[in-house]
Amino acid sequence: MKKKNCIITGGTSGLGLSLVEKFINNGFFVHILAKDNKKINNLNNYLHKKNLKSFKFYQTDLAEINELNESISQLKNLNTIDILINNAGAIFLKKTLNSKGIEKTFVVNYLSHFFLTLSLLDLIKKTKNSRIINISSWGHQLAKLNLNDINFSEKYNGVVAYNNSKLMNILFNYKINRIYTNSINTYAIHPGWINTNFGNYNQFAPRSIIKIARFLLAKNPNKVANEIYNLCTNDKYLNYSGKYLINNDVKKSSKLSYQIDLQDKLWDISLQLTNLKNIIN
Predict the structure, then answer these.
(1) How far apart, in Å, are the Cα atoms of 87 and each of 16, 49, 58, 90, 206?
(2) Which of 80-89, 261-270, 272-281 has the lowest mean pLDDT?
(3) What is the sign of the dihedral through the CA atoms of 202, 153, 143 and 271?
(4) Can you tell me the distance from the alpha carbon of 219 to that of 147, in angstroms, rounded to the nearest whole number?
(5) 13, 197 in Cβ contact below 8 A?
(6) pLDDT class for 181, splitting at 50, 70, 90?
(7) Nearest-10 crossing angle of helices 14-25, 37-49
């Protein structure tokens, strides 16, 4: 019997790593998209030491949309895509652009997942009860989104850029659900504050204080991985498709996230930036 396929972006550390282990341990073949070769090698050794072999790595930089094409080409050879978890995320406190001149928070956290999801949509739609998980954040409530200036040409704020990207994850979730209500199951989730190394590569003064608070107060990534696994495998959640969830309970997202014109405008901009204008319908 063939294993079900689960695709996870950013699977080499933090929540992504916990998700990789959870799905492999429960009989899935896991496809891991990640950038850092050192982390890939370390995870490869770690999984083999635990006698876990049902996985494959796809080395790709999500900040560069063109780099995704090779991974997508390989993933399209799968017979099914049962689960897609758009997990990878980053925060850049200093404005950083990719090779195309596009701000990296926007590309890594949102646009790469938009491109990946739509590129694999035919396979996802053909797979019974397949699910798309878009990792968002409560921080989307604090977004100050200006789709006429996604590059922050006037004044950059890394936290705002991050919050904006998390709002975009939800806008995308609602839009794609509106288009494909009867053929896909898609969820935007706030996983909570998780005890991981997320953001540690940024240099800022209170980092040590935040690390201590995270250790004392944040959720264990394994617990969150269990919640997401249940969301992906329990049939009762098929009724929650298109929703925003916290702890697998349906919650209201921000007022902005429900604006149809904002969902549509982001969709159109994303299609143009990824050259996917002709993939829909």
Answers:
(1) 7, 25, 15, 10, 26
(2) 272-281
(3) negative
(4) 33
(5) yes
(6) confident
(7) 30
Q: Are the C-beta atoms of 90 and 105 separated by less than 8 Å?
A: yes
Place of tokens 């997202």: 253
**Helices 221-233 & 14-25 angle (0-180, nearest 10):** 50
Residue 208: CB atoms within 10 A of its CB come to 8
Pair of tokens at residue 65? 């949309």
Q: Which residues pair with 34 in a beta bridge?
A: 59
pLDDT tens-digit map of 55-93: 999 999 999 999 999 999 999 999 999 999 999 999 999
- Spatial neighbors of 158 by CB under 8 A, at least 6 apart, are 91, 92, 93, 94, 95, 105, 202
The 3-state DSSP class for residue 87 equals coil
Answer yes or no: is pLDDT of 107 > 80.
yes
State how far the Cα of 134 lies from the Cα of 152, in Å rounded to an integer.
24
CA 279, distance to chain mean position in Å, is 21
Average pLDDT over residues 257-263: 98
- DSSP state string for 143-172: ----TT-TT-SS---HHHHHHHHHHHHHHH
HSE-up (13 A, CA, CB side) for residue 173:
31
What is the enclosing helix (H) or strand (E) of 85? strand 83-86
Burial of 50 (0-12, 13-18, 19+ CB in 10 A): exposed
pLDDT, residue 201, reads 45
